[in-house]
Amino acid sequence: MLQLPSAWNNYLDENETATAPLGQLSGAVDKNEMYDLAVKTLIDGQKTTLMLVTRPQKTSLLEADRASKELEEMGIKNQALIINGVL
Questions:
Q1: Which are the contacts of 55, defined by CB distance < 8 A and separation ≥ 6?
Q2: pTM (two decimals)
Q3: Residue 63 and residue 51: Cα distance in Å, rounded?
Q4: Mean pLDDT, residues 12-35 taken together
Q5: What is the C-alpha to C-alpha distance for residues 2 and 11, in angstroms, rounded to an integer?
Q6: Residue 18 or residue 49, greater confidence
């Protein structure tokens, strides 16, 4: 979801016959500044710690790991993992 605005802009730049955005992309072009600011805030470790919350099952932990790696590739490195449901 964090990459949708830039992906949509790239699509519009590359496709002269592109039609109006649908679904989750609707309105993304108009809100590009807001998205850019949100991503910059998430990347800034002085302002934000991203909390990933998961259950203690293997597949949930693997998904949290995958999400963490994708976020890190975007520059969001200040992350913490909360494992919910452990007694």
A1: 83, 84, 85
A2: 0.64
A3: 14
A4: 61
A5: 16
A6: 49
CA distance 19 to 11: 10
**Residue 67, SS3?**
helix
What would the mean pLDDT of 21-34 be, rounded to a whole number? 62
Report H helices in 20-85.
32-43, 58-73
pLDDT in tens, 28-85: 556 677 778 888 898 999 999 999 999 999 999 999 999 999 999 889 999 999 999 9
Q: Can you point out the beta strands (E) in the chain? A: 50-54, 79-83
Q: Say how far apart CA 7 and CA 66 lie, in whole Å.
A: 20
On whether the CB atoms of residues 52 and 79 are closer than 8 A, the answer is yes
Give the Cα separation of 87 and 71 in Å (integer): 29
Q: How far is CA 52 from the centre of its chain?
A: 12
